[in-house]
Amino acid sequence: MRALFSLFAVAVIIVVVVLAVTTDAGRLFFGTILPYAAIAIFLVGMVYRVIDWARSPVPFKITTTSGQQRSLPWIRNSNLESPRNKWGVLGRMLLEVLFFRSLFRNTKADLKDGPRLVYGDAKWLWLAGLIFHWSFLIIFIRHFKFFVEPVPGWVMMIQNLDGFFQVGLPIFYITDGLILAALTFLFLRRVLIPQMRYISLAGDYFPLFVIGGLVISGMIMRYTPLRVDITDAKLMGVGLVTLDPVLPEGLGAIFFVHLTMLTVLLLYFPFSKLTHMAGVFMSPTRNQANDNRVRRHINPWNPEVKVHTYEEWEDEFREVMKAADMPLEKDTESK
Amino acid sequence: MAESKPKPEILAKVDYQPPGDDWMELPVEIRPGTFNYAANPANAKYLDLPHVRKWQPTDDDWQLPENWQEIILEGLHDRLKKYRSLKVFMDICVRCGACADKCHFFLGSGDPKNMPVLRAELLRSVYRRDFTTAGKILGKLAGARPLTPEIIKEWFLYFYQCTECRRCSVFCPYGIDTAEITMMGRELLNSIGLGIDWITTPAANCFRTGNHLGIQPHGFKDSIDFAVEELEEITGIKVDAPINKKGAEILFVSPSADYFASPHYYTLLGYLALFHEIGLDYTWSAYASEGGNFGLFHSADMMKRLNAKIYAEAKRLGVKWILGGECGHMWRVLHQYMDTMNGPADFLDQPVSPITGTRFDHASSTKMVHICEFTADLIANGKLKLDKRRNDNVNVTFHDSCNPARAMGLFDEPRYCIEHACNHFNEMPENTIKEQTFCCGSGSGIGTDENFEMRMRGGFPRANAVKYVHDKHGVNMLACICAIDKATLPPLMEFWVPEVDVCGIHELIGNAMIMKGEKRTTDLRGEPLPGMEESDADESGEVKEVSEDV
User: Fold this and answer.
1) With an 8 Å Cβ cutoff, is B405 touching chain A?
2) Which domains does chain B carry?
3) Domain A2-303 has CATH 2.115.10.20
4) Residue to substitute from A112, A199, A329, interface B, most B β-carbons within 10 A
C-alpha cells in the first residue's frame, strides 16, 4: 500500500511534467525555476540539518566497540574496530563510509528443528547497497561533462572506465546496468520479505521510485530512439551552472522528466532519511575513539545531582558500624 | 509465577512472520510473564522521583499525570537538545532491516516490535509528528502518529523488553544504538512516574546503604567476614579483607551480588584468595559497596548519583587507584561514564600493579582497572602458580557479557585468564561471541520473576549457542564476568540446557591457584578438587609436583 502510494506520487509528478512542458511557462518552471529552487533548498537544508545536529552536544563517549580494546602491551588492539586513537577512528569511518563495514557483518538467523538457531552469511544487502551508492556516485561524476567546458580529464577517464567493455552503440555504461539491478534488488527485498514490508514506510519506497525514474529516463535518453541531443543538454547544463539559463528547443519531455526526478530528489533530500549521507559522519558510536579511560570526555551540561555523601551515610549508620567495630570518621562518644 | 511457567518446547516455536501489515494498528498486550511490576512508591519517593503513585501495568488506567503529554514532549525536546546521538538516530535510519534478526528478543519472541528498527520507530513516530516538517504535514503517511496513552503502554512494554545490549548497533551501517533510544524512552517514562520496581528499589537501596541489596554496613562486614571464614575452611588459610581502611593502596569495588548471591559468591572467594596470595594492599568499602549501577537503567542523573560514591570514597580513603570486579553494566558505567560524570580523578595516581610494576596506561585518566586486566597481567608476569588440572572437572565456554564486549572491547583478557586456569575451554560459534555476543536476556534491570517468559525467550539465542558447545564438546560450565549473568544465566541454563552450570572467571582462578601453605581438598564450592582429593593427596606427593607447571 505504502509502496503503491509512492509509485503513484512519482507517476503523478511525471504526468504533470510531461503535460506542463508543452507550454513555455511549464518549461520555464520545470527547467529553470524548480531546479534552482531545489539546489538552494538542498544546500540550505543539508547545511541546516548538519548544523542542527551539531548544535546538540555529545555528552558521553559511547563508542560501540567491535574489537579488542587497547589494554596490556602484549594484547593486540584492533584499532579499526575499537579505535585507540584518531587514526583508528579515521580508518573506521573510512571503512564505514566507503565500504559499509558494519553492513558487511550482516548475518541471517534461521531457526531450525532442534531447536537450533543458525546464522548464515547475508552479504546481498551489503553488495546491493555498495553497488547502488558507488554507481550513483560514478554516474553523478560522469554528468559533469554536461555542466563544464572543457570537460576535465579525470571525468573522461571515469566515463571511459565505465564504458570499458565497449558494448553497444552508444557504448553501454556498466554503472547504468548495475544501479538498475541494485535498485531492483533493494525494492524487491522490501516488498517480498515480510518483515521488510512490515517496517517500510512510504518514505522508504519514494526515493527508490524517484531514483528509478531518474535512471530509467536517463537511459531512455541515451539508449533509445527518444535520444536527446547532447549539444542541447550541454547548453542547458552549462547555462544552469553559469547562472545564464537557456532552454534549447530540442529538449523533449523525457529530458524534463529526467531533470525533474533529480529536482524532486534534491527537494526531498534534507527532509528525509536520505540525510544519512551526512548523518553517518556524526554517529557518536562510530566517530569516537575507545579511549575513555585515557582521555576524559567532557559533558557540557554535566548536571549537579543530589548525592548521598559519606558524612550523611555515616550519620545514618554510625551506631551499627560502631557495634560492628568498623572504622568511623566521627566517633560520637570520643567527641 | 510457578504455575504459569512456560515450557521450552513451546517457547522454541517462534513465528517470525509479522501479524497484519501495519504495526501502528497492532494492539499492546500486557501479558503475564512479559512485563515488570511498577516501582514501589516508597522507594520512588525516597529518590525524589516525580509523579509517584501506586499503579500496576495490568491496570487499565495508569493514572498518568494531567499534563503527561506536555511532560513527554518537553522531555523529548530537551533530550534532543542534549544528546546528538538521539537527534541523529531519530533522523537517519533508512530501515534497511539489518538489525532485525540481531536482537535476542526478536529471535526469541518473533514479536515485530522487538526488531530494533521498530523499537526505535515507537519513539521515532512520535518524534516525526511533533518535531519534523514532513511528519507535521503528512502525518501517518510519513510514519508519524500522535501521542496517546496506548503509545505510553507500548513504550513501557518494549523499552523494558530491550536490555540495552547494543548488539544491533554493531550491525547498523550508521551505528544507530538502540540502547540510546531505550535509555531515552525509559527516562521519559520515569518522568511521568512509570518506573519498574526492579530498577527503582535497587537504586534507592544503593543510594541509601551503598549497595543494591540494601545491606547495611555491619551486614556488609558480616558477609565479607563470613567469606573469609569460609575460605579458611576450604584452603586452611586465613586471609585479610579490610573494609574502609584508610591509606590502602587500592580500593576494590565489585557488584554487591558477589557477596550475597550464588554463584557470584565463589568468585568473591576467588578474589579474596588472589589478593591474599599476591599480598595486595587493598580495601573494600561499605559506603561504595556496589560497583553495579541500576541508575544506568533509569536515567543519566540517577547513574551519576549512584556512581558518585566510588570516586568520593577513593578520595576519602586516600587510595592510589581503583580496581573493579567482575560485572557487566558496572563496567559500562566505569568505562564510558564515570570519568565524564564524576571526574576528573586527579586526586588518584596512575594505576600501577604493585606486584608486576605494569603501568596501566589505558586507565591513566579514569584510574580504574578491570580485574581481568589486572589478573591477566599477573599471569603474564608469572606471578601466579596455576594448576589447570584442578579445573579438570569443568569444560568451560565463555560468555562475553554485553557491556565489557561492546562498550569496552574486553575480549582477550578474560580468555587469557581462562586459558591459564583450565585445560578444557571451547568457544561458542563466532556469531555468538565477542562483539556479536548474545545477551543473557535479563540485563538492564528486567531480570524479574514476573518477566520470566520474556527472559527465557530473550536468552534463547545465548542458551542455544551454549547447547551447541555442550552437545559438541561436552561443555558443562559457562564462565562469565557479569553479576547479572551470574544471577540470570543459571535459570536460563536450567530452562534450555540443564546440564550446564555458571561460574565467574575468578572462581576458576581461585580453584587453579596454588596458595602458599594451603590445605585443599575441595574447590571453592566445597566439591572435590580434581587431583587434590583427600585420599590422593595423602598417598603421593605427585600432585604437588605437576601443579608447579605454570
Assistant:
1) yes
2) 2-30+50-194 (1.10.1060), 201-380 (1.20.1050), 388-542 (3.40.50)
3) no
4) A199
Which helix (H) or strand (E) segment holds residue B457: the answer is helix B452-458
Whether ipTM tops 0.90, in short, is: yes
CA distance A203 to chain B (A): 6
* Burial per residue of B474-498, b for 16 or more beta-carbon CB atoms within 10 angstroms, e otherwise: ebbbbbbbbbbbbbbbbbbbebbbe
Judge: B435–A53 Cβ closer than 8 Å, yes or no: no
Angle, CA B337 vertex, CA B332 and CA B338 arms, to 5° = 105
pLDDT in tens, chain B (550 residues): 445 689 999 999 999 999 988 999 999 999 999 999 999 999 999 999 999 999 999 999 999 999 999 999 999 999 999 999 999 999 999 999 999 999 999 999 999 999 999 999 999 999 999 999 889 999 999 999 999 999 999 999 999 999 999 999 999 999 999 999 999 999 999 999 999 999 999 999 999 999 999 999 999 999 999 999 999 999 999 999 999 999 999 999 999 999 999 999 999 999 999 999 999 999 999 999 999 999 999 999 999 999 999 999 999 999 999 999 999 999 999 999 999 999 999 999 999 999 999 999 999 999 999 999 999 999 999 999 999 999 999 999 999 999 999 999 999 999 999 999 999 999 999 999 999 999 999 999 999 999 999 999 999 999 999 999 999 999 999 999 999 999 999 999 999 999 999 999 999 999 999 999 999 999 999 999 998 765 544 444 444 444 444 3
The residue ranges of every structural domain in chain A are 2-303, 310-335
The pairing of strands B321-324 and B368-370 is parallel
- Does the beta-carbon distance from A302 to B96 stay under 8 Å? no
The residue among B25, B45, B92 with the most chain A CBs within 10 A of its CB, best to mutate, is: B92
B352 touching chain A per CB within 8 A: no
Asked if the C-beta of B82 comes within 8 angstroms of chain A's C-beta atoms, the answer is yes
pTM, 2 dp: 0.95
CB atoms within 10 A of CB B429: 15
Nearest CB among A125, A272, A305 relative to B305 is that of A305
